[in-house]
Every structure is written in C-alpha cells, then in structure tokens.
Amino acid sequence: MAQFLVAIHHPDDYDPFLAEDEAMSHDIDALNDEMKAAGVRIFVGGLQPAGRAMSLRAQPTGEVLITDGPYLETKEHMGGFWVLEAANLDEALAWGRKAAIACRAPVEVRPFF
C-alpha cells in the first residue's frame, strides 16, 4: 500500500471560525470516521493560518534566517491535511474527492516517495 498526502487549500484570509459552520464540521467528522473505519487514515491535522507560519532559510554563511510568514507568497495555503494509506492513486483520489466536498475547498492529492 502506498501513502498519499491529501491537502486542503484555503484562501490566504481564511478564518475557520467564520467559514466553517456546523454542517461543514459534521461532514468533516463523518469523513474522518469513514477513513478510520476503512483503515486508510494514518494521520490528520489542521493548520493554523499561514500568517502564523515561520520560515527558515539556510544562508551561505551557515546561519539560518528565520522570518515571519509562510515560505511561499501565494493567495492560497495549506489549511489541513490527511496522510492516507491507499492501494493506488485512484483510491487516494476517491478520498480526495470526498475531502473536497466535505471541506468545501480545493484539495491536492500527492503520493509520498
């Protein structure tokens, strides 16, 4: 079985307290329960907003520069993710479809090496 990252992407100004209603929370909880029952879910985690990130960059001098904010300057950032164990990409994509519906957000599915 291969492992896959199923990542949820939110707009930069996403506020879960404003965007996530009871129905959405229920749908995400139901999806988590379904993943657990199917034995595919290895780990799940929600992330704080991108503005809370810290970026570290190695410098030619050997120092590490730490700056506030995400590494990438984009309009969307990863807001949460699942690590799943699935038989193949098609199965992982099927879970990704369910995640996109439950989270009402774009989803990226990517295999691990």
UniProtKB/TrEMBL annotation:
PANTHER family xrefs: BLL7171 PROTEIN, BLL7171 PROTEIN-RELATED
Domain of life the protein comes from: Bacteria
Similarity comment text for this entry: Belongs to the YciI family.
Record-linked Pfam families: YCII
Designated name of the protein: Uncharacterized protein
Family matches, as Gene3D superfamilies: Dimeric alpha+beta barrel
InterPro entries: Dimeric_a/b-barrel, YCII
